[in-house]
Amino acid sequence: MTTLAFQDLYPDELGHCYGCGKNNDHGLQIKSFWEGKETVAHFEPRPEHTALPGYVYGGLIASLIDCHGTGSAAAAAYKANGRDMGSEPALRFVTANLNVDFLAPTPMGETLELRGKIKEIKEKKVIVEITVFAKGKACAKGSIVCVKMPASMMPS
Ligand SMILES: CCCCCCCCCCCCCCCC(=O)SCCNC(=O)CCNC(=O)[C@H](O)C(C)(C)COP(=O)(O)OP(=O)(O)OC[C@H]1O[C@@H](n2cnc3c(N)ncnc32)[C@H](O)[C@@H]1OP(=O)(O)O
């Protein structure tokens, strides 16, 4: 049985996000999964994601943290409610706040691993902490405050 990524369960009309939209051919299409109590995603930066030669652009790292974070928040909210992800009514989260510490230069040519921990979960707000590893070394740490998506943001 294949396990679907959190983002594969987003409805088509919410699949256009640059970081995680399954329908965005030019996007990053990040895929997140549960691994025990943590969430995990992997991403291999492409040449256009370069900062200085040999090193990954920090904005890309922030984008990965952003979308792994909002996906983790939605998955955690479903889990806390004892529901299958994707079931109705939908639990959707957007980014309210994102903080990233760049701990060490992130080398190109490596698959990055993002590991998320759910730090706080409330009905309307989820806080996720994410560490980004390259070759087993922590290169960045992010904290993301995710808040339920306002109805006004839902595409009509
Ligand atoms: C399978 C099915 C799943 C479906 C899954 C669909 C996925 C669906 C998304 C797909 C796409 C992905 C998305 C990618 C991530 C973006 O890129 S999202 C785009 C960037 N984000 C935005 O555009 C959001 C713009 N901002 C807003 O709309 C509103 O300010 C917000 C964030 C919704 C907050 O609304 P608000 O009315 O101010 O919230 P409010 O009720 O006052 O606060 C709620 C809680 O959040 C806290 N809070 C609010 N703002 C902040 C802040 N800036 N800093 C810290 N804390 C804050 C409040 O303190 C409060 O905390 P508590 O008191 O409860 O502890």
TrEMBL record:
Record EC number: 3.1.2.2
Family (UniProt): Belongs to the THEM4/THEM5 thioesterase family.
Entry GO CC: cytoplasm; membrane
Subcellular location(s) of the protein: Cell projection, Ruffle membrane; Cytoplasm; Membrane
Name of the protein this chain belongs to: Acyl-coenzyme A thioesterase THEM4
Any GO MF annotation of the entry: thiolester hydrolase activity
Alphabetically ordered keywords of this record: Apoptosis, Cell membrane, Cell projection, Cytoplasm, Fatty acid metabolism, Hydrolase, Lipid metabolism, Membrane, Transit peptide
Recorded topology in the membrane: Peripheral membrane protein
Catalysed reactions, as listed in the record: hexadecanoyl-CoA + H2O = hexadecanoate + CoA + H(+); (5Z,8Z,11Z,14Z)-eicosatetraenoyl-CoA + H2O = (5Z,8Z,11Z,14Z)-eicosatetraenoate + CoA + H(+); decanoyl-CoA + H2O = decanoate + CoA + H(+); octanoyl-CoA + H2O = octanoate + CoA + H(+)
Record Pfam families: 4HBT
GO BP: any one term: fatty acid metabolic process
InterPro entries reported in the protein's UniProt record: HotDog_dom_sf (IPR029069), THEM4/THEM5_acyl-CoA_thioest (IPR052365), Thioestr_dom (IPR006683)
Domain Thioesterase: 54-136
